[in-house]
Each structure stands twice: as structure tokens, then as C-alpha cells.
Known about the structure:
By secondary structure, this protein is mostly beta strands. It has strands at residues 2-7, 10-13, 18-26, 33-39, 46-52, 57-60, 68-73, 78-83, 92-99, 116-117, 121-126. Strands 2, 4, 5, 6, 9, 10 and 11 form a 7-stranded mixed sheet that branches. Strand 4 and strand 5 (46-52) form a beta hairpin. The mean pLDDT is 94.
Amino acid sequence: QVQLVESGGGLVQTGGSLSLSCAASGRAVSTYAMGWFRQAPGKEREIVAAIKWRGEYTNYADSVKGRFTISGDNAKNTVVLQMNSLKPEDTAVYYCAAASAFYIGRAYIRENQYDYWGQGTQVTVSS
């Protein structure tokens, strides 16, 4: 059983910063990518950022480009999402995810590409 454990959520004011961390634990697993998704109340879950280990390619939602940075360690199956210049619209539950399948030439931006999910951590940005 593979578990993803997230940490770092909380309450912050507009313009502030938070860093979310995620680590995989349990049986040994090889991952090809890890990512962060979020779900705001009344909305569907959406991709925030993803990192594909081969080539360390990263993808970001347009709404967070220039403000969020994803990084990680493939060997340790850990990923960090650094969130700066936070806005009230960033308020959501943030989920860490890991992908164990390889997709040639494709970015890991869809939910169905991910096999393992964390429980989610709440991020609230006050105005």
C-alpha cells in the first residue's frame, strides 16, 4: 500500500506564501511524475502543477504561473509546492498525487494519469 502524506496547508493573508510538502510512504513504488491538484467549494478538482521526473519537466495551470513553483526528489518520491503571492481564489483543498505509469511525450496534467492520492490539505487565503 502506498500512501501520500501532505503537510503545510493553513490560513494566510492575500499576498502571503505557503509551502506544501508531500511524501510517499509504504511499499516501494516507482513514480514517473507527481503533481498537485486542488478543489474549491462547488468546483471540480483541477491541476495546479506537475513535475515529470524524466527531464524534470514541469507544468502549471495558467492561474498560478509565475506565482507557484513545484519541485521534488524522484529518488525519495517527495514533492513541494511553493506558493507565493497567494490570492483568495487560491483557497481550496490541495491534493498531492503520484503517477506510476509512463506516458510518452505527454504532460501529467489529467487526474486519470495518477494512481495515488493524498487526503488533501486545506489552504485558505483571506482577503
